[in-house]
Amino acid sequence: MLQQTPAARVEGTWLAWMEHWPTPAALAAASTADVLRAWGRLGYPRRALRLQEAARAVVERHDGELPESEDALLALPGVGSYTAAAVMAFAFGRRSLVLDVNVRRVLARVDGGVEHPARTETAAERRRAWVFVPDGDREAATWSAAAMELGATVCTARNPDCDRCPVAGHCSWLALGRPDWEGPPRVGQAWEGTDRQCRGRIMAALRSAHVPVPVADLTWPDREQLRRCITSLVDDGLAESLDEGLTLPR
Asked: Could you tell me the pTM of the whole model?
């Protein structure tokens, strides 16, 4: 849930989610429609589908217990290198390289002397980041959590609070006078009028309905874009097209 979504938006949904489905087996047995309704407005709802698919794989392959092997985690649906590393560190207290946008920004400033990391993570960046991860499992897991929290609360993308930073004395970017970013412009994602907004509008209508929603009842100014987004939602497994209209997958 925290991938691509701020913690403040995730907290309430996560607490309710864990109350409904506290184990992989419980989530695996849930209806997909209920899972998508519980996901609500967190965005990128395919994550909810992958999470349920992963829960089902955990039940089928690992007797309902999350595997404590990075290779086994990577074999689960929707689990990439970042998620596997985060689970190893935060669930099992193992040494791993957890490189989210916050940790990357901290290391770019402290070690690289630049305001922001490169847009795309590189092998060289990963090799350099490993240097900072302590050797012991417990120490490494603590470091990963601390670096992530530092980037999220102090060493933020905008208006970093260097006076409050515990590693300010070691920060290359601060020592250089906090030079402005000289890389490509960092442009935020557009939202208004995009397919993402249109898909979100459709999903909101389907979540609030318990019967199929006729396509004619869906409001969107560009009907061709609406049809395209309906097709993409069906293709992604997020909606089903019935004679009566659209519905969440059952």
From this structure: 0.89
